[in-house]
Amino acid sequence: SQKIEQNSEALNIQEGKTATLTCNYTNYSPAYLQWYRQDPGRGPVFLLLIRENEKEKRKERLKVTFDTTLKQSLFHITASQPADSATYLCAALRSSSNTGKLIFGQGTTLQVKP
Amino acid sequence: DAGVIQSPRHEVTEMGQEVTLRCKPISGHNSLFWYRQTMMRGLELLIYFNNNVPIDDSGMPEDRFSAKMPNASFSTLKIQPSEPRDSAVYFCASSLGGRGEDEQFFGPGTRLTVL
């Protein structure tokens, strides 16, 4: 079955370092990957989208890569801050059809320590 | 815009009772999604609508679950009868179009506890 997998273990890093989160997908080839941030008690908030023909996308301190050979996306936060502490969710199309049906990963919790 | 609005924010009910969750999408958005989030299963898509029409309800767990969208500004998710395993946070989201590249805007969620 189609699956999105993210590291279930929390990632703890020191303020100022770069955080790198991993998203792996199996049994399909998504046309898009989206990354969302979720804070406790709140709904996910969209951060970035990357298309299968894009290798990298940047937005301020955020960078996302999409490697269709490895079937993997990496999400980087440079110069991390305690305010970046949250759960980050990776999401991809459930099928090759161009609809809004997303499959979400379980999310990786990031803790940035001052 | 106030964003996606969901009510109630919290619901505690007893097994066997009917539960109705409500959602008001962002004005002008054509697609609406209902998700369920649990620790075990993460965020799962239950059903989504495009232009008020249900497009895919394959994620709806059982016949006890039903969803309606009578107009572009309102949707409901009903569980009847509710069971303890339905306890979860239910999110409603909307997007401008129904395309895979459209970002989805999530509401604050309804935390449902079925005793």
Walkthrough of the structure:
- The complex is a heterodimer of chains A (114) and B (115).
- Chain A has 114 residues and is mainly beta.
- Chain A contains no helices and eleven strands.
- Chain A has strands at residues 3-6, 11-14, 19-26, 32-38, 45-51, 56-59, 62-67, 72-77, 86-93, 102-104, 108-113.
- In chain A, strands 2, 4, 5, 9, 10 and 11 form a six-stranded mixed sheet that branches. In chain A, strands 1-3-8-7-6 form a five-stranded antiparallel sheet, with no helix packed on it.
- In chain A, strand 7 and strand 8 (72-77) form a beta hairpin.
- The mean pLDDT of chain A is 91.
- Chain B starts with a strand and ends with a strand.
- In chain B, strand 5 (42-50) and strand 6 (53-56) form a beta hairpin.
- In chain B, 0% of the residues lie in helices and 54% in strands.
- Chain B has no helices and eleven strands.
- Classes of the chains: A mainly beta (114), B mainly beta (115).
